[in-house]
Design a protein that fits this description.
Elements: H1 2-13, H2 22-49, H3 55-76, H4 81-89, H5 93-121
Length: about 130
């Protein structure tokens, strides 16, 4: 699923003339959205369990999660970018529209969920 999302982000970014490295930017984009999903889940868990954590621990945990996601995505997507391009370039126009629609919905749901959690469930302590 995320491999296909990587390809659709790449295909959108390669059409931007000022974008010199759409493969790497797609890798950063998919990693960012996955990070937002994980952070949103942490926010929901913290809301229900009321975990008392320090600011340093939160920052450290965030860096560990972001680094882990980036490392996994590097080996899953960025290092295999040529194979991914070959696989998804052959899709029919109808299948391409379906994939792009699912990417749009994924990005929309991710952002709405993150903003909702941030606005309603996370209390400012620091």
């Amino acid at each position: 699923m995320f491999t296909e999302f990587y390809y659709w982000i790449y295909s959108l970014l390669k059409n931007i003339k000022t974008n010199d490295n759409p493969e790497f930017n797609a890798f950063l984009g998919i990693s960012s959205f996955q990070y937002l999903n994980v952070v949103s889940l942490f926010g929901v868990v913290n809301y229900f369990l009321v975990l008392n954590t320090t600011k340093k621990l939160i920052i450290l945990a965030s860096l560990v999660v972001l680094s882990s996601i980036a490392i996994v995505n590097y080996y899953s997507f960025f290092s295999k970018r040529e194979d991914i391009k070959k696989k998804y370039e052959r899709f029919s126009p109808a299948r391409r529209r379906k994939g792009q629609l699912f990417l749009f919905l994924y990005v929309l749901v991710t952002l709405v969920f993150f903003i909702y959690v941030l606005a309603n469930l996370v209390t400012a302590k620091y």
